[in-house]
Design a protein that fits this description.
The chain is α+β, with helices and mostly antiparallel strands and 152 residues long. The chain has one domain. Helices cover 34% and strands 18% of the residues. It is built from five helices and seven strands; from the N terminus they run βαβαβααββββα. Strands 2-3-7 form a three-stranded antiparallel beta sheet, with no helix packed on it. Strand 5 and strand 6 form a beta hairpin. Helix 2 packs parallel to helix 3 and helix 4 packs antiparallel against helix 5.
Length: 152
Amino acid sequence: MVVRNTVPVTDAVFRQVYDSPAALPGRHRWLTPDEDVRRIEDLLGMEKHTIGAPLWVSGDRMTCPGCRRRISWLDIVSSALKSVHSPAMVAEVILGEQKYVNTEAPRAIAGLSCFRCGTRIDFLRSFKCHNWAYARPAIMKVIARMERAGGG
């Protein structure tokens, strides 16, 4: 039985496993473009420029086979919101102090589809965020604003 999970880890474990983008599995490693980060903020109901940390992705391909759009955290977030996670939980992962490691590597991350065309994405291997380790009160303010705006 294969357990697929993203688990919270200590800072020390995070640094050992994922601190360098070069450590990400897959043939390619790339950053989510700024326009996709702004769309993520829209999806989550966040104010513009709330997310400032780099959002890394890695995999064996960089583009969607259906529409040729470069895959990014936008695809990960939109897929997560459709199936398993609330906007508040996603915001905590991106902005929070707790670090997370995805333990599905080297397999492809399950359940992803292209934000633009809906094509199944089965070649992403990992994702990470060098978050700004927001203070807990600051995260709660962001989430409260998201909820008031209908995104949480």
